[in-house]
């Protein structure tokens, strides 16, 4: 039996090389490549800037393992996320569809899911690539961050859980790592909630004191009951403001294995070793394949949890330490593939969910990523810095090593690409916005199938790009842009992210036009005086926008208020609520 397994491994190791030879002799043979049914390993960083990686131009950050993937594979230089924040971007990645189609957007400023105990999430009628690959016989796993919802009506229905979206195995955070998990000064919601609760406490305390004074002086004819209730409410609000930080830590910062909470709240010194141990375990269990493993890193989102042996080692403070630790994790995963004999039979993909956060800053210390030459960052719907991300594919013996592709591609393209490789079919009952990347990666196609890409901020269309292939030009049109603060800055400092609508955005008439093929930094606005085809470009892009909008159907918005508020009865808890505390697994070996 052992001899048989070795034979299988040997067969799988030379099969990709044979396919590459066949493809070089006959490009049409690319239609048969899905017969190889490779293992698929998807690596996604959280909040990583495209300028943070050596192979994308950073010569002061050490990322040798990610750089090695690019050297041995294909690097995409115009790889675009479908949204500039994690929840909508990840929804688009898994479904191959703009998040506005699935309702994984908001219209009121709730840019991502705010609580684990909220009812919003990836709708059950959406089809992920994991679901299709599972049906084709793949073992499917997700390790790390989810942030696409959990429950609908009870604390245990798990209607939005990864296991209800095609994954056989899940280990990680159903929510997201955030500054509030470590009670950082950079806070997503704790500081705001504390301020609101303190304000309400002061109002009710003033009301109670006024009623007491009026009662004692006989100026206000009132019974003692309103006085007592006002005082009790004030005390309750004061206590809530004191404990809200602990509530967030227990409510959102925990680990699950499949449907079971294993650690609530998280013990951060264990997290990275546990993630790596889980990845290695999955690869060893499923090494006879085929498998799909999505490793959704908690790095490099604040609070930048970093092991002691990486602290102070980079040239870029805690953020750089965290990036370099993530690169080390990539190296450990690649080592496991080598040891298990899986490297040649596994397609690896590395990316980030969106650009780095410029607003993650305290004083002169930057805790967010660098987006290289590109303008803007995380949360900005149209500017390149928020949506242009790394894109690296490696499949030894099949994909040409060292190939660089500048054509427009999207995170949504992973959906049809892996579905085809697995021998599956892209759903025909819905619009799929992603395009199969295989011909481009293999070199059998010269151009991307994306003529247009739309760039949303919540449900609002902020920008669009047009690849005018006959001229070799990449046009970018901005309909709406955020107002940077302070004036002249490159971000919305003083806020967590830039807004999508309201007084702090500008609606451009005429829209702003850039030629990204000559001006990737979006610094030179083209006008009718400086660009002879200005009006033709505008008309063609606006026509494409109208055609795109005709394909949209009304759906419930999962991130709007009703689906995005904390509901105690939906709160996962490993003990009787609110005593949510447990540690059910040993330290990693």
Automatic annotation (TrEMBL):
<feature type="transmembrane region" description="Helical">
    <location>
        <begin position="199"/>
        <end position="220"/>
    </location>
</feature>
<keyword id="KW-0732">Signal</keyword>
<dbReference type="GO" id="GO:0005788">
    <property type="term" value="C:endoplasmic reticulum lumen"/>
</dbReference>
<dbReference type="InterPro" id="IPR024607">
    <property type="entry name" value="Sulfatase_CS"/>
</dbReference>
<protein>
    <submittedName>
        <fullName>ARSE isoform 3</fullName>
    </submittedName>
</protein>
<keyword id="KW-0106">Calcium</keyword>
<dbReference type="InterPro" id="IPR000917">
    <property type="entry name" value="Sulfatase_N"/>
</dbReference>
<dbReference type="GO" id="GO:0046872">
    <property type="term" value="F:metal ion binding"/>
</dbReference>
<keyword id="KW-0479">Metal-binding</keyword>
<keyword id="KW-1133">Transmembrane helix</keyword>
<keyword id="KW-0472">Membrane</keyword>
<dbReference type="Pfam" id="PF00884">
    <property type="entry name" value="Sulfatase"/>
</dbReference>
<dbReference type="GO" id="GO:0016787">
    <property type="term" value="F:hydrolase activity"/>
</dbReference>
<feature type="signal peptide">
    <location>
        <begin position="1"/>
        <end position="31"/>
    </location>
</feature>
<comment type="similarity">
    <text>Belongs to the sulfatase family.</text>
</comment>
<dbReference type="Pfam" id="PF14707">
    <property type="entry name" value="Sulfatase_C"/>
</dbReference>
<keyword id="KW-0378">Hydrolase</keyword>
<dbReference type="InterPro" id="IPR017850">
    <property type="entry name" value="Alkaline_phosphatase_core_sf"/>
</dbReference>
<dbReference type="InterPro" id="IPR050738">
    <property type="entry name" value="Sulfatase"/>
</dbReference>
<feature type="domain" description="Sulfatase N-terminal">
    <location>
        <begin position="38"/>
        <end position="423"/>
    </location>
</feature>
<feature type="transmembrane region" description="Helical">
    <location>
        <begin position="227"/>
        <end position="249"/>
    </location>
</feature>
<keyword id="KW-0812">Transmembrane</keyword>
């Amino acid at each position: 039996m052992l001899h048989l397994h070795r034979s299988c491994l040997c067969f799988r190791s030379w099969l990709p090389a044979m396919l590459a030879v066949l493809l070089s002799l006959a490009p049409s043979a690319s239609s048969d490549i899905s017969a190889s049914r490779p293992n698929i390993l998807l690596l996604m960083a959280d909040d990583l800037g495209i300028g943070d990686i050596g192979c994308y131009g950073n010569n002061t950050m050490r990322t040798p393992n990610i750089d090695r993937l690019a050297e041995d594979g294909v690097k995409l230089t115009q790889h675009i996320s479908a949204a500039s924040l994690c929840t909508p971007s990840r929804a688009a990645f898994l479904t191959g569809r703009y998040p506005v189609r699935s309702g994984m957007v908001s219209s009121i400023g709730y840019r991502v899911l705010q609580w684990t105990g909220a009812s919003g999430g990836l709708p059950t009628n959406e089809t992920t690539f994991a679901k299709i690959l599972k049906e084709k016989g793949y073992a499917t796993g997700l390790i790390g961050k989810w942030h696409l919802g959990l429950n609908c009506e009870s604390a245990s229905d798990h209607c939005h859980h990864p296991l209800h979206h095609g994954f056989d195995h899940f280990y990680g955070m159903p929510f997201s790592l955030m500054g509030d998990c470590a009670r950082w000064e950079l806070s997503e919601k704790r500081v705001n909630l504390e301020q609101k609760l303190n304000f309400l406490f002061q109002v009710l305390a003033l009301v109670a004191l006024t009623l007491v004074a009026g009662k004692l002086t006989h100026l206000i004819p009132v019974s003692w009951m309103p006085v007592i209730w006002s005082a009790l409410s004030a005390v309750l609000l004061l206590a809530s403001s004191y404990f809200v930080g602990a509530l967030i830590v227990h409510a959102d910062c925990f680990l699950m294995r499949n449907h079971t909470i294993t650690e609530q709240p998280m013990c951060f010194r264990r997290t990275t070793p546990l993630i790596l141990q889980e990845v290695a375990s999955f690869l060893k269990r499923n090494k006879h394949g085929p498998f799909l493993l999505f490793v959704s890193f908690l790095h490099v989102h604040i609070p930048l949890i970093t092991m002691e042996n990486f602290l102070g080692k980079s040239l870029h403070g805690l953020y750089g330490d965290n990036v370099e630790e993530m690169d080390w994790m990539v190296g450990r995963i690649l080592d496991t593939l080598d040891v298990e004999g899986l490297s040649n039979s596994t397609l690896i993909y590395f990316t980030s969910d969106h650009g780095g956060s410029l607003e993650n800053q305290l004083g002169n210390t930057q805790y967010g990523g660098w987006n290289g030459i590109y303008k803007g960052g995380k949360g900005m719907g149209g500017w390149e810095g928020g949506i242009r991300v790394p894109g690296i594919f490696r499949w030894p013996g099949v994909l040409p090593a060292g190939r660089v592709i500048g054509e427009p591609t999207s995170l949504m393209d992973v959906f049809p690409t892996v579905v085809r490789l697995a021998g599956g079919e892209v759903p025909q009952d819905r619009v799929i916005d992603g395009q199969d990347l295989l011909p481009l990666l293999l070199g059998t196609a010269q151009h991307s199938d994306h003529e247009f890409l739309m760039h949303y901020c919540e449900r609002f269309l902020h920008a669009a790009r047009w690849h005018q292939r006959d001229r070799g030009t990449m046009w970018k049109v901005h309909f709406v842009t955020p107002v940077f603060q302070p004036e002249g800055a490159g971000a919305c400092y003083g806020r967590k992210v830039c807004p999508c609508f309201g007084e702090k955005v500008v609606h451009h008439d005429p829209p702003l036009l850039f030629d990204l093929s000559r001006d990737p930094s979006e610094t030179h606005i083209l006008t009718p005086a400086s660009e002879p085809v200005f009006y033709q470009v505008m008309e063609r892009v606006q026509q494409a926008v109208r055609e795109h909008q005709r394909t949209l159907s009304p759906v419930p918005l999962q991130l709007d208020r009703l689906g995005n508020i904390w509901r105690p009865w939906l709160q996962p808890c490993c003990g009787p609520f609110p005593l949510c505390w447990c540690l059910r697994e040993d330290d990693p070996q």
